[in-house]
Protein: Citrate synthase
Amino acid sequence: AIDITKLRGESGAITLDPGYKNTGACESAITFLDGEEGILRYRGYSIEELAEKADFLEVAYLLIFGELPNASQLQKFNTDILDQSIVNEDMKTVLKGFPETAHPMGVLSSLTSALTAFNPKSVNVDSEEDMYRAIVKILAKFPVLAAWTLRKKNGQTLYNKDTNLGYVESLLKMMFQDDNPKRNYKQNKVVVNALDKLLILHADHEQNCSTSTVRIVGSSHAGLFASISAGVSALWGPLHGGANQAVIEMLEEIKADGGDTSKFIEKAKDKDDPFRLMGFGHRVYKNFDPRAKIIKKAADEVLGQLGVDDPILEIAKGLEKAALEDQYFIDRKLYPNVDFYSGIIYRAMGIPTEMFTVMFAVGRLPGWIAQWREMRLNKEPIGRPRQVYIGETKRSFKSIENR
Ligand code: ACO
Structure:
């Protein structure tokens, strides 16, 4: 093992690694990722097996506490979450203040931060019991807030959790209650199972941008909700979680343009054009993203089962094929990532495009919590990177009339 004390900056030597491409920020026992081989495991269990056999709440428990729960542990966890699922009525007033045009991710981040004001005791977590209470609270209330961002956008009534339903079912009910009866997701096992799988696939991904944000904010002991709120903001960007929305917008654009994928491939290769093929490429996966494989298969199944014939799926498949045969993408090892096909499934479920990244956030929540808890239990020092200064040397102040 590396002796970290020998690498500290006191000696004056600073490692410069923009984007932290080769810098480990912590030791972690949560998620294993091998980008060359396309392997992803949560606490040692392969993502393929978890996506097929586990449900989201079990995976959340596994990520946070390190082991799969037995039946009574899972029941207690579920009951503890249900006990905390009511969101303070005054939070609705906070939500009311936002314009309907506000992006749901901005609203979700703000509401998550506002939760701290209504639960001030959740900030100081000096014991594992305090930590558990804060964890259960955010797991309970976050999906309610996520559903509210959609209801607010549509000007609909805001509901709390239906405590007779499972975690994923109640999320769907809170989002779509009173809508067109065709969207009665309570009975729709296909949709519930597909969303459960999507949330599991998104649940953790070691030190990605939003997770690193959660750890670094949490390292100042700002509290779990503030850290998660910062994670939501980090996830929002199109280079990270916002890619799922950007993919659908790109596919729509290709469709509206007549469906010729080669034009967009050429645009993505042009270094003078800021356009990138959204849903392609990954900082760590340089062979394939194992989650993308599972999702591509699920997209076919879900659309088939729901009887949805979406021309966007064919465009996506055509684009993937064309890119994988193109030397530019081959040389740079650019493959579809988890979000290339996830938006197609969300769309088939009737979830509006602007909500896609919110769904990702609900999925990533257990990972953020697990990483925050690990960081606090390991008593990690405050995150505080150094820099290499390249600015002006010492200068004398000039009064305003002499500038
Ligand atoms: N389209 C076109 N070219 C690309 C793409 C793309 N999607 N992704 C990377 N490249 C090119 C870069 O231009 C660069 O080319 P160069 O070597 O000729 O300069 C090379 O591939 C390496 O790319 P970097 O940007 O250095 O790779 P990095 O690891 O920093 O970025 C990222 C990874 C942000 C995911 C990038 O591939 C990207 O922007 N993809 C599109 C957005 C996206 O899908 N994000 C979701 C990621 S998964 C997630 O967060 C859940």
Summary: Strands lie at 31-34, 39-42, 45-46. The radius of gyration is 22 Å. The first strand starts at residue 31 and ends at 34. The pocket of acetyl coenzyme *A is lined by residues 19, 239-241, 243, 268, 276-283, 332, 334, 337-339 (CB under 6 Å).
